[in-house]
Amino acid sequence: MAIMQLNIIPLGTKTASVGEYVVDFQRALLEEDVNFTLTDMGTIIEGETSQLLALAAKIHAMPFAQGVQRVVTQISIDERRDKSVGLGDKIHSVQERL
Amino acid sequence: MAIMQLNIIPLGTKTASVGEYVVDFQRALLEEDVNFTLTDMGTIIEGETSQLLALAAKIHAMPFAQGVQRVVTQISIDERRDKSVGLGDKIHSVQERL
Amino acid sequence: MAIMQLNIIPLGTKTASVGEYVVDFQRALLEEDVNFTLTDMGTIIEGETSQLLALAAKIHAMPFAQGVQRVVTQISIDERRDKSVGLGDKIHSVQERL
Amino acid sequence: MAIMQLNIIPLGTKTASVGEYVVDFQRALLEEDVNFTLTDMGTIIEGETSQLLALAAKIHAMPFAQGVQRVVTQISIDERRDKSVGLGDKIHSVQERL
After folding, report:
1. Would you tell me which CATH number, out of the four given (3.30.70.930, 1.10.1740.10, 3.40.190.10, 3.20.20.70), belongs to the domain B2-97?
2. Alpha-carbon span B88 to C7, nearest angstrom
3. pLDDT tens for each residue of D29-65
4. Interface test with A, best of D7, D8, D64, D72 (most A CBs within 10 A)
5. CA C14 to CA C63: how far, in whole Å?
6. Does C77 reach chain A within 8 Å, measured CB to CB?
7. What is the pTM (predicted TM-score) of this model?
């Protein structure tokens, strides 16, 4: 099991706000069978690495369909094989020890 | 106002778990006068850019004090000057439009 | 055409040096039909986004085969559709204007 | 000694090209007493962590002075205390072993 943080940055948009794209990404994720959460700095999704990268590719392509000419996408994957770690587990583990 | 995501990765630790360091970082942040939240992929902190970078430097130095020989620190800063955006604002803005 | 920066960070290795893993990644890339370059902070590869993500998945899996229990992989993809940008193009464009 | 990769992404620019900002960053760095190199995915600079973060803050502020309303800045710092690693050292170490 892995956890991925995904950030999609469309460049050359008219305004500094890119919330409309983030809304589209969230809608697309809601249609998938995945556990995810939106933070102030990206979307965090739980799954197998291959599934997560396929999702990243799908969402990365979305702004182009709306006329954006350049997209910078950042993906961070944290995969453990010594134990299963799902969404929220790392937070709980830290908070218990505070 | 800016929002920073901070990730501190100590290398060469004996085990794959680095939660003990994250606990220390959270304790250090609790002693600061800042608004922050822990996610599965990092800590997100709200503040002025100069204040945020000073915090990042402070936390980046912590694992060395515990004997770690190499630390990879990742900082992402999102600063807007057209409007004030604090912790949670981007999430609420997107959720309202879903 | 897109450009990807790939960083693979194995956690819980005995030492702070992870060069042996980077050597393996470079060898794997040399066997692929791709244009890539090694920098001090990662490997930069040119290709189509789907091809780049497939490569990232392949290289991300390599440390696990050597007994590493946790891998943090960071991928940054910069894709333009208004013009074709290959490896070195952005550097040359900036240097011409200095 | 540490190595920093710095990426400055101005949002809401009229076009998808942000090369003009990168040219300005390079000019600013040329006036500093630092060892740096431009790659296709960012600028890599060698120095002490405090010096590197001060430089990052300075360059992050530059697009605002030109009317940009939002800047996303990404900083990755790799600091070792078990040995001194400068610009190019990691590349040479890997290439020797290929």
Report:
1. 3.30.70.930
2. 29
3. 999 989 999 999 999 999 999 999 999 999 999 999 9
4. D72
5. 13
6. yes
7. 0.95
